[in-house]
Amino acid sequence: MSKRLVTLFWGLILLAGGVYALARTAGVEVTQDPGVWAFIFGGISLVSLIFYFAAGVRSWELLFPAGIFGALAITSALVARGVDDPAMAAPLFIGIGLPFIVAFMLDRAKNWWALIPAGVMAFLTLVLLVVDRVAGEWIGFGFLFILALAFFLVYLSRRAVWAAITAYVLFIVSLMPLLSMTSRPEWSGVILFFAIGLPFLYIYYKSPGRWFAIFPAGILLTLGLVTAVGLIPGISDETTQRIGNSVLYAGIAATFAIAWLKNQVRWATAVIVLAAILAVITAIFGELRHSWPIVLILVGAFLLYRSIRAKTA
């Protein structure tokens, strides 16, 4: 089928649409019967589908008008039947998402990106179908879970590590709304930090060239421990804060110590020393603002030591 015929068809459609809009603006009585519009939109969708198959199934972008006008036809038919439900708009998102699914199926290596907008359309469809029937927490879970599934399919298609990590993180985050519905929602923070930190720890041990992964792993696991300390029952807020601050600095020191021991990251020694000192000070004195003079004295003494040692050498 020639491009000239396709151009002629869409030119006539746009012209008719402009005339209709102009007539309504001028106050001319024109049909607004949803049943009539269902047939009109259905006819446009059918012709668009014919254009798609005539051009070849690999021209997936031609499916957009077929899907969109087909969805409008279904919605108009539902309106004509007196249906009043948010789910009526679901066919529109299905019609928009269908071409992306076809694009991925035609060339999974090249069109892997199509899974992401397809996932978004799938979520919007799901929301419209269940918005009046389920709690908001389940909708939040569904959104993040569908996105996680989309990135997981990207990983299966391209074997890209970044896609696997993104899918895993989105899956873990998707569980947070559900955990907020349990009797102990406060533990969701601990689970989140540990769950996201573990993959980075795995990457660090399995891929020696990616030693920098120890930093997000260490920081996230440390934050998980700090959050867990805050949930220990039976201790005062002051003690909780003291232990939490100490654990935070100790975790930072341990993270940089691992990087220094295994990968000889020399600049990490300064961070290790400072974090270790802060861990001890906060464990003894509590909040750092009460002990900053001691910190200044220790840092000054360290700098003097370095200066004297350099002269001696």
Give an overview of the whole structure.
The protein is mainly alpha-helical and 313 residues long. The protein has a domain at 189-313. The protein is 76% helix and 0% strand. The chain has helices at 3-25, 34-55, 63-80, 90-106, 115-130, 136-158, 161-179, 188-206, 214-229, 237-263, 268-285, 292-312. The N and C termini lie far apart (85 Å). The model has no long low-confidence stretch (mean pLDDT 77).
Task: Give a short synopsis of this structure.
With 313 residues, this protein is mainly α. It contains 12 helices and no strands. Helix content is 76%, strand content 0%.
Write the layout of secondary structure elements.
Blueprint: H1 3-25, H2 34-55, H3 63-80, H4 90-106, H5 115-130, H6 136-158, H7 161-179, H8 188-206, H9 214-229, H10 237-263, H11 268-285, H12 292-312
